[in-house]
Design brief:
Biased composition (Low complexity): 468-492
InterPro entries: G5_dom, Glycopeptide_resist_protein, Vancomycin_resist_VanW, YoaR-like_PG-bd
Radius of gyration: 51 Å
Domain G5: 380-459
Oligomer: single chain
Largest sheet: 4 strands, antiparallel
Protein name: Exported protein
Helix content: 25-40%
Shape: elongated
Pfam family, one: G5
Number of helices: 10
Structural class: alpha+beta
Length: 492
């Protein structure tokens, strides 16, 4: 009995001790947790240990303190920074203060403050005691338009246009001036370099080298020197033209004179001569409109395009665009003409040679001349001629209409008859005076125009009968009598 009592006492003592230990442990843990909580609460408005922005330590800073520190470290300091662009022997400075530089200081300070605040109580406490390794990036912004203005300033000082060699021909004598190489800043590369080197780093100065390229002239003397002589010529007469048409032929020939075509260049007659207006000096001349001949500003310039066409073909330069007239032109055989009209019909050709071609054009003594100059040796001893064969001929009919306004037996054309044609043109190549090839160029059709003859039907009016002789009274002897006319005032 006594043994059982002893065991019970012992058990009670063990339980009591265990409970005491647990109570004490729980009490201690509560105290510790409360201590940690109070410690962490002190950092609610502070940035945790080890949080940095662009390597600037913000540990223990409030947001306001962090903002001030970041502004002093970056926003204010960056305005003193410069970017220098070296170009040739010149330096161009870009002050950051002109870029309206801005850092996202307020935003990043808030992020720094919030860093770790979403963790558990004990995780927060661990960061407060041991710190973290968080380095937040600071974003840098600036006014891009200021950079473009800076780049344009550099380009205006550095860029230099090349100078083309110039060729002039007078009386067959060829004169060529020197060319000069230009230079140009590679704007795209310069823009990339500047924007790559503009950043939020607070170093005082950044230096970049402007990319500068040579710019060759379009017409170098070495190329123009390949023009050493005349390779073709053609001329047509406008001796019967009136003043307006003659002025148009002369003016159009001036517009195409001294035209230079490098290899691969295309010539456009309309682009070269331009719109035909009175303001530009063009007069009135006859043109074909359908089956009629009408007067219009610029009439006659097709004679120049036709002369140019013939000269070009003699140089072996074929058209990329060419149209024939609707009716035969007096200054050209059918199939060998080239008509143009502003806004619709053009005459074009491309320089397919590996040397430049120079066009000389002028009017003298009612004749328009077109000469092509190029490399005589480059022609390889070949000459060219354009011919046309008639495939069909369309004879017009002539009808008569009576016209009471014309005297009987009198005739007058209301519409003159024009014979129509279908022709095929060929470019024949000669080598040493012998034909070596014949190339089909075009098949052209010229419409016929049926004639209309007006025949007069108006009867002739008989002359009025002579009035009877007036009665005369003889008052003097016959030898001294005078006569009074019955129709006074008749012209003699």
């Amino acid at each position: 009995m006594s043994n059982e009592v002893g065991k019970n006492k012992t058990l009670k003592m063990v339980v009591a001790g265990t409970v005491a230990v647990v109570v004490i442990g729980l009490s201690g843990a509560g105290v510790y947790a409360m201590t940690v909580k109070n410690q962490v609460a002190k950092w609610d408005n502070k940035i945790y240990q080890g949080v940095k922005v662009n390597n600037v330590d913000l540990s223990g800073k409030t947001k306001e303190e962090a903002v001030k520190l970041l502004e002093d470290s970056f926003s204010n300091t960056i305005k003193q920074k410069k970017l220098v662009v070296k170009a040739l022997d010149q330096n161009f400075e870009l002050d950051y203060s002109n870029l309206n530089p801005q850092f996202n200081v307020q935003e990043i300070a808030q992020k720094a403050l919030e860093e770790g605040k979403n963790l558990s109580l004990f995780q927060k406490n661990d960061i407060i005691k041991n710190g973290t390794n968080k380095n937040l990036p600071l974003e840098f912004k600036y006014d891009d338009s200021k950079i473009k203005a800076f780049e344009q300033q550099i380009e205006s000082k550095i860029n230099k246009d090349p100078v083309d060699a110039k060729i002039s021909i007078s009386g067959g004598n060829i004169n060529i001036t020197d060319d000069q190489t230009g230079r140009k800043v590679n704007a795209e590369e310069l823009d990339k370099l500047i924007k790559t080197n503009i950043n939020g780093k607070i170093e005082q100065q950044t230096v970049v080298q402007a990319p500068i390229e040579e710019v060759k002239s379009k017409y170098p003397k070495s190329e123009l020197a390949k023009i050493d002589g005349k390779i073709s010529t053609f001329s047509t007469s406008f001796a019967t033209s009136n003043e307006g048409r003659s002025a148009n032929v002369t003016l159009a020939s001036k517009f195409i004179n001294a035209k230079l075509l490098m290899p691969g260049d295309t010539f456009s007659y309309n682009e070269t001569v331009g719109e035909r207006t009175t303001a530009r000096g063009f007069g009135i001349g006859a043109i074909f409109k359908g089956d009629k001949v009408e007067d219009e500003v610029g009439g006659g310039i097709c004679q120049v395009s036709t002369t140019l066409y013939r000269a070009a073909m003699r140089a072996g330069i074929k058209p990329t665009e060419r149209h024939n007239h609707s009716m035969p032109a007096s200054y050209s055989p059918v199939g060998l003409d080239a008509t143009v009209y502003w806004g619709s019909l053009d005459y074009k050709f491309k320089n397919t040679y590996d040397f430049p071609v120079y066009i000389e054009s002028y009017a003298s003594n009612k004749t328009v001349y077109v000469n092509f100059y190029g490399s005589v040796s480059g022609m390889g001893g070949k000459t060219y001629e354009l011919f046309a064969d008639t495939l069909d001929k369309y004879e017009p009919t002539i009808s008569q209409v009576q016209d009471s306004s014309l005297a009987e037996g009198q005739t007058q054309w209301e519409k003159k008859p024009v014979t129509g044609y279908k022709v095929k043109s060929y470019l024949i190549t000669y080598q040493g005076g012998k034909e070596v090839s014949r190339e089909n160029i075009a098949t052209d059709t010229y419409q016929k125009v049926n004639g209309v003859m007006k025949v007069g039907t108006k009867k002739a009016t008989p002359p009025p009968a002579a009035p009877p002789a007036a009665t005369q009274t003889q008052t003097t002897p016959p030898a001294q009598a005078t006569q009074t006319s019955a129709t006074p005032g008749t012209n003699q």
